[in-house]
Amino acid sequence: MSGKTSSGPRLGTPERAGPHLGAVPPLRGLTFKQAAVTLFIVLALGMIIGVIELVLDWRMVREDVEQGTERTLALVEGSASEAAYQLHPALGRELVEGLFAFDTVRRVELRDDFGQVLASAERERRTSGDMRAWRWLFADVIHFQRRLQYDVPGGGLTAVGVLELDLSADVLAQRFLRQALRDSILGLARALFISVLVVIIFYFMITRPLLALSGAIARVDPALPGAWSPPPALGRRRDELGLLLGHLKTLLQASQDGLDARDRAEREFTALTQELEARVQARTRDLERQKREVERALGQLDSAHQRLSEANGRLLESHRYARRIQTAMLPPKDALDAVVAEIEILWEPLHLVGGDWYWLERRGDLNLILVADCTGHGVPGAFITLVLASATQQVLRESPDWSPAEILAALDREVRARLHQDRAGPASADWESDDGLDAALLLWGGRDRRMRFAGVGGIPLVKIAPTGEASTIRGARGHLGYQSLSSPRRILNHEIEIEPGATFYLMTDGITDQMGTTPRRLLGRRCVVEWLQGSAALDLSDQVRGLCAMLERYRGEESRRDDMTLVALRPL
Amino acid sequence: MKTLQAPLLLAVLALLWVVPTGQTFADRYIVGVENIDYRPYQAGHTGAFEGFGRELLDAFAAAERLELDYLPLPPSRLLPSLLRGRIDFKYPDDPAWAPARREGHEIRYSRPIVGYVDGTLVLPRHLGRPVNEIRALGTVVGFTPIAWQPRLRQGQVSLLENADFSALFHQVTNRRVDAVYANVAVARDQSMRLFGRPDALRFDPGLPSTQGSYRLSTLRHPEVIDRLNAWMQAESEVVAGLVRRAGLDDVWQD
Question: Where do the Solute-binding protein family 3/N-terminal domain residues begin and end (chain B) (predicted)?
C-alpha cells in the first residue's frame, strides 16, 4: 500500500529532526576519537618498543665500544710492544697520539716494564651538557689495559710493558643519548605521521560516507519512509556501507509496510470500536432496565424484610414471654435448702425456652427431685414441659406413698393420656403427637440415710463418694410417653447409701452432648464425670461455674446442640 | 773389597759425582749487549752475540774461569736493565751516555776497552757542506746523537730514527735525510756489506762528532770489573790483537 493512502498521524518531519541531530561536536566525532585512539596506541607501542630498542641499543653500543676498543688495542699492540721493548718514547707518543684520533678516548698511557711512562696523554672533551648523571651507562666499559709482550729473538715472549686506555664516559653517554633522542623524535614523528595517515584514510573511507549516509537518513520522511532513495555515491558501494545501506532500505521499506499495516489496523479498529460502542449502548439500556427491575425487587425485598423483622420481633417477644411462663413453672431453687448441705441447679434452655424441666418438693420428711428431658427443644419442648408439669402435680398429689418407680410409671400414663397417645385406632393419627420424655427421680428422707432413685431414658445418677470414687446408676431403657413406643416394661427403684460428704448429680444429655475440640468429637459423660471427680473439693456453685466454663472452652467455635439441666446436691 | 756389595758401590760413585773434587765451579753472569748489527764492534741482532766484544769477553771469561751469558737487548733497554738488576753487566757502556739517568747509581766501569768515533756520514759528493745545511738527520733507534743535541734542542735539525742501517743508507740516497749519525767504523762495515764498497757514505769530520771508548759496567759485581781491568792490563797484547783483527785499531780511519 502506498504511503499516500495513509490517513494516520505523521511521526515527524526532517526539518524537526535535522537541527537536533545534525551537528556532531568535533571532539565527539569518530574522526577525532579514531585519531586519538590511533595516536595513543602508536605512541604507547612506540614508547614500549622504543624503551626496548633503547636498552638493546645501549647493550649493543657497550659491546661495540668494548669490542671496537679491544680491536683497536689489538691493532696497535705490536707497535706498542715495539715501542715498549725499544723504550722508544717517540714511537710511543706517535702511538698515543694516533689513539686520540678516536674522539671517545680520554686517556692513554704506555708504560714499559721498568715502570717508566714512555708516553701518555689525557684530554677531557667538553660535552654539550652535564653528563655526570649519565656516566653510569658506560662507567664499567671505559677502562682497558693490555699487557704488552715482545718476541725477543732467542728469548721467547717477554713482558715489556702495559698499555692503558680510558674512554670518556661523558662522550659515550652523550653520543648514546643523542642517538636515543634522535630515535625518539623519529618515533614521535612516525607516530604522528601514521596517525594522520590513518585518520585521513578513516575519514575518506568511513567517516565521510557515514556523514553522507547520516544526511540521507535525516532526509527520510517519517510518514513515507518507503519513498526514500539513497545517495547515488553510496548506492554503488559493495562494501559494509553498501550492506548497511541495503539493510537500511529494507528497514525503511519494512517500516513503510508497518505504517500501512497500522493504518489498516486503525481503520479496522475504528469500525470495531463503533460496533462495540453500539453494542455497549444497547447493553447499557438493558442494564438500566434491569437495574430498575432490581431496584424494584430490592424495594420489595426490603419491605418483606421489614415485615419479617417485625414478625421476628413479635416472635421473640412471644418467646420471652413464654420463658417467663416456663420459668414460673419451675420450683424455687431454695426449696430444699433446709434439708441439704448444698444444692446447685443449672437450667439453661438452648433457646429462650426449652424441653428440660425439673421439680423440687418436700412432703413431710421426704424430699423429691425430678429432672426431665422432653422431646425437642424450643417452643415444642416447652409445651411438653407444660404437659409434664401439670401431670407431675397431679401424680404427686394423687400418690399416697411416693415411690420413684411408681411416680415415673404414673407420669408415663398421665402424659400419654393428656397427649391422647393412649388411644388406639385410626383416629389417633389425627392428634399427630408422638412426643415423650426421659426422666429421673431422686427421693430421700426419714431416719435412714438411704436414697431411692429411678429413671427412664438417658438421665443417670452420678455419685462422687468422699473418697473421690465415682459411680453411675442408669435408669430403665425406654422413654415416657411417645405414641409409637410402649411403656417401659419395668422401672426399678435403686437404693443408694448416703455417705457423709458424698455428692449426687442428675444431668440431661445436653450437658454431655457437647461437640468440640480438634479433631471434632463429642465430649461424653465419662469426661464430665472425670472433671467432676477432679473438682470434688470445690463448692457446688463453683463446680457448676467451672463446669460451664469447661464446656465453653471445649466447644470453642462450636455452638450448643441441646438444652442443659444439672442438679447437684450434697445431702446433710 | 770382596764384601762390598753392588748397591753400596753405586752410592759411593754417586757421592763422588756430586761432591766437588777440588775444582771450583765457574761464576755465571748475565751480560746485556745491544741487539743491533754493530759490526765490527759487536752484533746481537740475530739473537747471538758476536764480534769484537764477544771475542774479548769470552777471552776474559776463559782466563778468569767465568761463565758469561749474553743477553741481546735494544740499546735503550740496556741501562734500565742494569739499573734494575736484570743484568749483571752492560756492554758497551760509556759514562757520557745519558748521564742524568745514571745519577744516584754507583756504576762501576772498566777501563776503556776499545775507542769509537760517532760521526756524521754524508754522500761523498756532499762532503764539506756546512752544518746548517743538514736539516734532517737519521740515526738508528736508541742511538743518541750527542754531538747534535744542541741543534736538535733548538729545532735546527730534525731527527729520524730507523731500526735498520740499510734503510738509513737508502734514506740518505733518496734524500729523505741529509745525513746519518752513526759510528764511523760500523758505517764503513755496513757500506761494505750493503754496497760492496766501504764509502757509500763517508764520514765528514767537519760536521758534529764525538769520540770515546767502550767499557764494561756493573752495579753489583765491581770485583769482576777489577779482574777485567787487571786481565786487560796483563793481557794487553791479546787485547790489542783482538782490536787489530776487528779492524778497530784506527777508528778515525775512513
Answer: 28-250
Tally of CB atoms within 10 A around B147: 17
Give the structural domain span for A71.
26-211
- Helix ranges (H only) for B32-112 are 52-64, 75-83, 99-102
Tell which of A211, A238, A255 closes a domain: A211
| CATH number, domain with residue A526 | 3.60.40.10
- Out of A150, A185, A211, pick the residue that ends a domain: A211
Return the closest-CA partner of residue A91 out of A148, A155, A142.
Answer: A148
CB nearest B47 (choices: A114, A116, A153):
A153
CA of A167, closest CA in chain B: separation in Å? 30
User: Interior CA angle at A556 toward A555 and A559, to 5°?
Assistant: 60
Among the partner-chain residues A87, A88, A114, the one whose CB lies closest to the CB of B84 is A114
Q: What pTM was computed for the model?
A: 0.50
Spell out the per-residue pLDDT of chain A, length 572, in tens: 333 334 443 443 444 444 455 567 777 877 788 778 888 888 888 889 888 988 999 999 999 999 999 999 999 999 999 999 888 888 899 999 999 999 899 999 999 998 889 999 998 777 777 888 888 999 999 999 999 999 877 678 889 999 999 999 999 999 999 988 998 898 888 888 888 888 888 888 888 888 888 888 888 888 888 888 877 766 666 788 888 888 888 888 899 999 999 999 999 999 999 999 999 999 999 999 999 999 999 999 999 999 999 999 998 898 899 899 999 999 999 999 989 999 999 999 998 899 999 999 999 889 999 999 998 888 889 999 999 999 999 999 998 889 999 999 999 999 999 998 877 655 555 556 789 999 999 999 867 789 999 999 999 999 999 999 999 999 999 999 998 899 998 999 999 999 989 999 999 999 999 999 888 899 999 999 999 999 999 999 999 999 999 999 999 999 999 999 999 999 98
Rounded CA separation B88/B226 (Å): 14
Contact (CB<8Å) B161/A90: yes
What ipTM does the predicted assembly reach?
0.75
Total number of domains constituting chain A: 2
Alpha helices of B65-183 — where are they, by DSSP H? 75-83, 99-102, 149-154, 165-173
- Whether A229 maps to a domain, the answer reads no
Query: Of B46, B84, B161, which is closest to A153 when you measure between CB atoms?
Result: B46
Q: Which residue of A has its CA nearest to B75?
A: A86
Residue A523 lies in a domain: yes
CA distance A560 to A377: 12
Mutate to test the interface with B, among A86, A94, A117 (most CBs of B within 10 A): A86
